[in-house]
Amino acid sequence: MSEAYIVAATRTAGGRRGGRLAGWHPVDLSAQVLNALLDRSGADPVLVEDVFMGCVSQVGEQSTNVARNAVMASRLPDSVPGTSIDRQCGSSQQAVHFAAQAVMSGCMDIVIAAGVESMTRVPMFSPSSLAQKAGLGFFQSPGINKRYNDVVFSQFAGAELMAKKFGLSKDELDRFALLSHQRAIAATQAGAFKEEILPVAVRSPEGVDTGEMHMVDEGIRFEATLQGIQNVKLLQEGGVVTAANASQVCDGATGVMVVSERGLKLLGVKPLARIHHMSVLGHDPVIMLEAPIPATKRALKKAGLKIEDIDLYEVNEAFASVPLAWLKALGASPDRLNVNGGAIALGHPLGASGTKLMTTLINALGQRGKRYGLQTMCEGGGMANVTIIERL
C-alpha cells in the first residue's frame, strides 16, 4: 500500500473568547495557515490538489463551505478546491484521514488537511440554536428519540457519566487540570511551541491590525493553583465537572500538508512523519465521550502494536474525565500523555483541534527523539478517531 507523509504542520496560538484572535474573520485566519503550509513546505501553490477543512459550527462566517472560502482568501490558485468536514470535535483529525486516504489511493499527491473555529464569532451550538429560534426544528428526530428513550444527548452529562463509571473524583479531575496548565506553562517557557505556532497579528474588532503579534496560547493560566481550580463552581449539583477541569472555549486555525511518495519527490522535502494507522469508531451516544477507549484498543490491534509501543499520546482534554478514564482503561503511562498540556490549558477550538493536536504531537516527538505517537479524541454522537504516526 502507498504511504502518506506529513511534510508541514502549523497552528495559531489559541485565543480566548473575545480575546486576541476575536478580530479575525475565521476564513481569513485559516487562509493564514494555508499560506504558512505553502511557506513551510516550499510547495508551488498550483501543486496542491485539495483542501479538507474541519469546522463544527458551519453557520454565519463559517458557512457556505469554509474550506473553499479559505482557499479563496489565501495564495492558493482558483484551481484548488476545498471541502468542509463535520465530525464534531474530530473534524480536522478526520480531515487528516481523508487527506491520507486520497494520497494513499493514488488519486492525489499533495493535499492540505486543516481546521478552523472562531468560537467568539460563531458560538458553540450556533447551528442548532439558531435553527430552533427560527422554528426550523431540532436535530434529534422522533426516530432517534424512540431508539434512545427520549434522552437529550449532552457532552456535559457524558463527562459526569464517565467520571462515575471510572470512579474518578473531583479532586482527581482538578489535579489533572492543574497539571495541564503546569505542563503548558513549562512548554511555553521552554519554547517548545515556538516551531509549531504561526504568529498572526492581533486585530481590533473592526479587523484592523494593532501592531501586536499573537504568539502565546492565551488560555494558559500562569497563576493557576489547585485551590483556585477547586473553588470553581460545579456545572451540575452533586457532580464533579467544572469549567476549570474542562476544555476552554477557543479561537484558532491549524493545518498539516499530507503527501504521497511522488509528492515528496515533487517538493524535494523530507517528511516530518508517516501516517502509520488511522481509524474511526462509533460507540454509545449517551455516555458519548467513552469512544476513544474502544477505538484506541481496536486501532492498536489493527496496527499490531501495544500501548507500551507508543511513545507519546495526545488525548483531547474535552473534560478531564476523558483522558483520565482513557489512561485507566488502557493501562497507559500518564508521563506520556499530553506532555505539553492539553485543551484544559491550551483551549479546544472544536473543528480545529484535530490538526492542532497532530501539530503538537509531531513536534513533541521530534523534540524528544521519539518514534510513535497516537492521537484520539471524543466526538459528539459517541465517536472517536485514532491516528498513529511514526516520526521520521
From TrEMBL:
Q: Which SUPFAM superfamilies match?
A: Thiolase-like
Q: Which residues form the active site?
A: C89, H348, C378
> Which Gene3D superfamilies does this one have?
3.40.47.10
Q: Which InterPro entries match?
A: Thiolase (IPR002155), Thiolase-like (IPR016039), Thiolase_C (IPR020617), Thiolase_CS (IPR020613), Thiolase_N (IPR020616)
Where does the Thiolase N-terminal domain lie? 5-261
Its keywords, alphabetically, are: Acyltransferase, Transferase
- Name of the protein described by the UniProt record: Acetyl-CoA C-acetyltransferase
**Taxonomic lineage:** Bacteria, Pseudomonadati, Pseudomonadota, Betaproteobacteria, Burkholderiales
